[in-house]
Amino acid sequence: MHHGEGRSYTIKPSTPTGIMLNELQCQVELTQKQANIVSFPAPKTSSRDSEQTLIGQIVALITTGDLRNVTATQRILRLDLLVDSNGLRNGKLYKTSVLLKRVIPGLNPDGFSYSANDTGWQSPPQFHVLLPQELNERRVDLWLPLDTSQVCIDASDIATQLDLKAIPYGMYSKNDAEKVFKVLGENEISLYTTSSDGCVERLWFHQTTDVAHNLSSPVKFSNADSISQSSKQLKAEAKARLDLMTERIRTVQLKKIEIDQYGDATDLVELIKSFLIQQGISAELITLYERPATSGAGVQVRPLAN
């Protein structure tokens, strides 16, 4: 190769990563391109972005319509949950508790709880004693404790988002630290927020399923609301509640039915007993107790199941 003043030569490689030779006057330069992938860290999400995301998730969950839909809950909150398929019915939570598989930022896992009891029956809490089951609301409860060192939201932020989305809701304050939001549909979903130092530190979502047919023990009937003055028979509303009660009774092994009579309600007692017997309930399972009247004549019915 000839070297001379003012002359240059370049020998290009045959491959992209080969060595290139450049000669300029009396200098020789060797260069080589190296294939490499350089990764850059994703930009950090600001705390406010995380808080706005959380507020949107809270509003989406309270308006989802049914907290038994565990798939929707996982999607909305981006949770990874461990669900026992034996506790599901038609793909929804029936009688089960759900576990948190993975901790997510902003959530304090210590107080997490997600459970459902859609049977309509529940034993009263009692240490070391198994009490008979009583009628209870069909319910779902989801507890989400927040890590306020990572996210800090105010309960008013939730109200603002509900207003922006024109979602009908009710709200009241239990005290300065506790607020309650209610969204009513076929299921009533309530959100209880507890705050400390200006930050919501705990969220409790509570659902009463099929609120129009909610039934809890004892089932109360008053003379005025239950007996027609003209026919002296049970009114339609009283019959509907007894129908719902006997429908629930058919799902369990009935132990007995306690009827508490308050004041002059003998006619109402006989009408209710007759209705239950016509529904196939043995008269031997019905026990009557006479109680002193405290707020008007009436009857309270308490089915008990094994």
Radius of gyration, taken over Cα atoms and rounded to an integer in Å: 34 Å
**What is the first-to-last residue Cα distance?**
103 Å
Query: How many β strands by DSSP?
Result: 19
Largest sheet: 8 strands, antiparallel
Total domain units: 3
Beta fraction of the residues? Answer: 25-35%
Give the % helix. 10-25%
Structure description:
There is one protein chain. The chain is an alpha+beta fold and 306 residues long. The chain has 3 domains: 1-37, no CATH class; 47-213, no CATH class; 219-305, OmpA-like domain (60s Ribosomal Protein L30, Chain: A, 2-Layer Sandwich). It has 6 helices and 19 strands. It has helices at 47-62, 70-77, 155-164, 223-226, 236-249, 266-278; strands spanning 8-11, 19-24, 27-32, 81-82, 88-89, 92-93, 95-100, 113-117, 121-122, 133-135, 139-145, 170-173, 178-184, 188-196, 199-208, 219-222, 254-262, 286-291, 298-305. α1 (47-62) runs antiparallel to α2 and α1 (47-62) packs across α3. The longest helix is centred in the N-terminal third of the chain and has 16 residues, at 47-62. It is elongated.
